[in-house]
């Protein structure tokens, strides 16, 4: 009888632990000074729970999803733009960027690229391939560099640069393999000290502008030390450091050399989907949660057990709000999470 009692107590304990695991009622592992401020999902007005891109303006947050573009105002007002009430041709809004009061966006269908859209706060412009000097309607990413130049990556036709403000006779310039780009399938970008770092399907290009008719590129592939060539995300780190996320781990460029960190080094998952830098800290979005890389150490990852809507991270954006508070916006396949960084 005594043995039965002990077994019963053990079973109850295990059941309680299992219930806590399933319900998410376990101790959160948020880093010091970080708190979960909000989770935003379809039940709250988000147009779709699969969040693909986030861009933050002074008075609103733009959220690109699998089904339309959601705008979250500072006072909680929610607006949705899609084919029915905006020039966005298709529902999937896979890439967006903010430049001042402008929103740059693309929309996609499973088979068709929708081109590039610019909203200046009052009206829309739609830029398309050929007629508007665009190389392609299949847009993969946007990036605004430190000179406020808009760069637009495409699936298979290289990179467009918005030049109309300095050249009223032309809307876009372009970079491609014909000019020295390592690959025309552009996936991500960052910039550092006059350099544009471009992540592609087959390596990394560093573009330093032109010297007359010569385009100044340095290219990295496995042939000259790059550990892995498919680069899904890239971020400018402190000093001379560059971070690059791949399906096989985190690559770091420092002192002229590349190295890669994987699960054996403390990374929660080798499949990195997004990166963003906050001072000396690197935030890493993976397929198995969000992780902070600080002082050369991977801190414990956190996911839906710690309040995030999902462990699958699809995009990350760091921004200061109008209230002066720094926030990390985390797009997942089950909604948007917002972390408050004190």
Named at the architecture level, the CATH assignment is: 7 Propeller
Largest sheet: 4 strands, antiparallel
Low-confidence stretches: 1-27
Q: How many helical stretches? A: 1
CATH fold label: Methylamine Dehydrogenase, Chain H
Order of secondary-structure elements: HEEEEEEEEEEEEEEEEEEEEEEEEEEEE
SS strand fraction:
over 45%
**Order of strands, widest sheet:** 1-28-27-26
Question: Please, what is the average pLDDT?
Answer: 91
* Morphology call: globular
For the secondary structure, the number of strands is 28
Assign the CATH class.
Mainly Beta
Q: State the helicity in percent bands.
A: under 10%
Integer count of domains? 1
Provide keyphrases for this structure.
1 helix, four-stranded antiparallel β-sheet, Methylamine Dehydrogenase, Chain H, 342 residues, mainly beta, single chain, disordered N terminus
Architecture blueprint of SSEs:
Blueprint: H1 2-23, E1 34-40, E2 51-56, E3 60-65, E4 69-73, E5 78-81, E6 92-99, E7 102-108, E8 113-119, E9 124-127, E10 139-144, E11 150-154, E12 159-162, E13 172-175, E14 186-192, E15 195-200, E16 203-211, E17 214-220, E18 233-236, E19 242-246, E20 249-254, E21 257-261, E22 272-278, E23 281-286, E24 289-294, E25 297-298, E26 313-320, E27 326-332, E28 335-341
Antiparallel strand pairs: 1-28, 2-3, 3-4, 4-5, 6-7, 7-8, 8-9, 10-11, 11-12, 12-13, 14-15, 15-16, 16-17, 18-19, 19-20, 20-21, 22-23, 23-24, 24-25, 26-27, 27-28
């Amino acid at each position: 009888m005594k043995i039965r009692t002990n077994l019963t107590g053990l079973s109850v304990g295990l059941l309680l632990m299992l219930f806590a695991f399933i319900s998410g009622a376990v101790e959160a592992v948020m880093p010091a000074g970080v708190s979960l401020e909000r989770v935003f999902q379809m039940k709250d007005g988000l147009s779709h729970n699969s969040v693909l891109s986030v861009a933050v303006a002074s008075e609103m947050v733009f959220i690109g999803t699998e089904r339309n573009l959601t705008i979250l105002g500072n006072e909680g007002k929610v607006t949705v733009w899609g084919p029915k009430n905006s020039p966005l041709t298709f529902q999937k809004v896979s890439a967006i960027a903010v430049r001042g009061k402008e929103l740059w966006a693309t929309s996609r269908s499973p088979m068709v690229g929708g081109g590039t859209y610019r909203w200046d706060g009052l009206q829309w412009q739609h830029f398309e391939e050929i007629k508007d000097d665009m190389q392609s309607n299949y847009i993969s990413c946007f990036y605004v560099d430190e000179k406020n130049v808009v760069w637009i990556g495409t699936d298979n036709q290289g990179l467009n640069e918005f030049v109309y403000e300095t050249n009223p006779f032309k809307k876009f310039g372009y970079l491609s393999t014909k000019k020295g780009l390592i690959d025309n399938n552009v996936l991500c970008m960052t910039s550092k000290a006059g350099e544009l770092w471009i992540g592609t399907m087959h390596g990394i290009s560093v573009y330093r502008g032109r010297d007359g008719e010569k385009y100044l590129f340095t290219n990295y592939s496995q042939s000259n030390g790059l550990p892995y060539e498919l680069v899904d995300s890239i971020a400018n780190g402190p000093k001379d450091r560059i971070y690059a996320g791949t399906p096989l781990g985190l690559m770091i460029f420092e002192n002229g050399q590349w190295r890669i960190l994987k699960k054996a080094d403390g990374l929660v998952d080798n499949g990195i989907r997004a990166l963003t830098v906050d001072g000396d800290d690197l935030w890493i979005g993976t397929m198995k949660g969000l992780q902070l890389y600080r002082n050369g150490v991977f801190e414990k990852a956190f996911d839906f057990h710690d309040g995030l809507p999902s462990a699958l991270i699809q995009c990350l954006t760091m921004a200061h709000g109008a209230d002066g508070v720094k926030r990390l916006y985390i797009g997942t396949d089950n909604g948007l999470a917002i972390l408050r960084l004190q």
